[in-house]
Amino acid sequence: MSEEPSGYEPLPLPHRRELGDAEALAAVEAFRTLMRRRHSVRDYETRAVPEEVIAAAIETAGRAPSGANQQPWHFAAVADPAMKAKIRAAAEEEERQFYAGGAGDAWLAALEPIGTDASKPHLTDAPWLIVVFAQRYGVNPDGSRRKHYYVPESVGIATGFLIAALHAAGLSMLTHTPNPMKFLNGLLNRPENEKPVMILTVGHAAPDATVPRAATIKKPIEEIMSVHRGDAERKD
């Protein structure tokens, strides 16, 4: 981190966005509409995406909350075609073992409606790969370890910020998780304390891009939300 805190120092809330009820509903409905148009994409155009766009999206991810504000993440953005080819080759090797039986019958059956297999051309077709690393622990200037808290939760939140920012920029993406992913540390020269957790392929969807019908089926609000109103539940 560029600045280490020396103790608790309360500051006035630096930013405040206050909306009336109607404005709040309109704002969240507009964001909901935007995110309803997000789809995982495997077919990409080869046209470039400016690095500034990728950097702005990653900076947005860096604004996510994290356990004890440790910010236990690193995002390796890859545009180099040679490096993307190496990542694809290593990932496809892991995927071939996965689809050859390593996953188990139940997992493969669950994936069948998605239409995936061991071939991952999107890893070289997309102009950018963003590899998400979780920092399992921090390293102090003297080389000693510093404990990080709620690492999976913090990195998951930051990745959600990143996906939303990329979609807001008009880009398509896909989450890809070859297993194991340790090869990414060596290829991208990342330290031992970082664990690769995901590859995001990022770019513009190809004109003939498709999505599996199964992926468009989302749970309705009644299945993902429960409300506990307290005293309001007993009022007519």
UniProtKB/TrEMBL annotation:
EC number: 1.6.99.3
Keyword Flavoprotein appears in the UniProt entry: yes
One MF term in the entry's GO annotations: oxidoreductase activity
Domain Nitroreductase: 36-204
UniProt organism field: Roseovarius indicus
Keywords carried by this UniProt record: Flavoprotein, FMN, Oxidoreductase
Pfam families referenced in this protein's UniProt entry, alphabetically: Nitroreductase
Top class in the EC scheme: oxidoreductase
Protein name in the entry: NADH dehydrogenase
